[in-house]
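Title: Comparing notes on inverse folding

I've been comparing how different people in this forum approach sequence design from structure. To keep things fair, I'm posting one structure and asking everyone to reply with a full sequence. Here's the target:
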C-alpha cells in the first residue's frame, strides 16, 4: 500500500476522541505484523480503547520512537461538504478528518515501516500510537508507564504533530494551577456578614489575567 492508500484506510475509521478505537487498532496491528514487526496492544482502563507499541529491528538496544495518536476531534462542523471519513482529493489537496492531525503522519510512518523491516537494523525503531490525545492526552500516560517493559530507554522521540514541515526541538510547555476559594455563608438580609467565594475568585482571575 502506498501512503495515500494507507491514509484513506485510516481516515475511514471514525476514531473520534472518547470513543472505542478497536477497529483502527486491529488494522494497524495486522498491517505491522504482516510486515514482520513486533506489536503490543495495550488496553487502557476504559476497556474499549488501546494504545499500540510496535518494534522494528532488534528489541535489544536503544532506538528512537516515532510517536503519534490515532484519535481525531469530532467532525461536526457545518463547513464539511463531503463525508469527513472518506478521503477525497481536490485541487492537489487531500481532505478528510485527521489528514493533518494526525493520521497523515501515521500513514507516512506506516508506509515506511515495511522498508525499515526489510533492513538489517542494528538498533530498533519503535512506533508508539496512543488514544484520546485530543482530550488531554489521556491514553499516553498508560503507554509511558509500560515503556520500561517494552523497550530500553529510548534515544529520543519524533512526534508527528503538524508544524508546517518545520522541525520543533522542544515543547513550548505549560503551567497549570488549581485554586479553591472557600466562602462563608450568610443571610441575604446581611450579606456583609458572609463572604462570597465567587467575588473572591473574580479578583484572583483578574490578577491572573493581568499577570499573563
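Reply #1:
Here's my take.
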Amino acid at each position: 500500500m502506498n501512503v495515500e492508500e494507507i491514509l484513506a484506510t485510516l481516515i475511514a475509521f471514525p476514531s473520534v476522541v472518547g470513543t472505542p478505537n478497536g477497529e483502527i487498532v486491529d488494522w494497524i496491528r495486522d498491517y505491522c505484523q504482516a510486515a514482520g514487526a513486533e506489536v503490543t496492544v495495550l488496553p487502557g482502563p476504559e476497556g474499549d480503547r488501546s494504545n499500540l507499541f510496535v518494534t522494528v529491528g532488534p528489541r535489544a538496544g536503544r532506538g528512537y520512537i516515532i510517536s503519534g495518536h490515532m484519535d481525531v476531534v469530532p467532525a461536526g462542523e457545518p463547513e464539511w461538504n463531503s463525508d469527513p471519513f472518506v478521503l477525497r482529493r481536490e485541487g492537489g489537496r487531500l481532505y478528510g478528518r485527521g489528514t493533518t492531525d494526525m493520521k497523515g503522519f501515521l500513514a507516512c510512518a506506516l508506509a515506511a515501516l515495511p522498508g525499515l523491516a526489510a533492513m538489517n537494523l542494528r538498533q530498533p525503531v519503535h512506533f508508539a500510537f496512543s488514544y484520546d490525545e485530543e482530550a488531554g492526552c489521556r491514553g499516553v500516560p498508560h503507554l509511558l508507564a509500560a515503556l520500561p517493559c517494552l523497550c530500553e530507554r529510548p534515544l529520543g522521540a519524533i512526534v508527528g504533530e503538524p508544524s508546517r514541515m518545520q522541525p520543533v526541538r522542544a515543547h513550548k510547555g505549560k503551567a497549570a494551577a488549581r485554586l479553591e476559594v472557600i466562602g462563608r455563608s450568610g443571610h441575604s438580609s446581611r450579606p456583609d456578614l458572609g463572604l462570597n467565594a465567587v467575588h473572591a475568585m473574580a479578583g484572583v482571575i483578574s490578577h491572573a489575567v493581568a499577570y499573563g
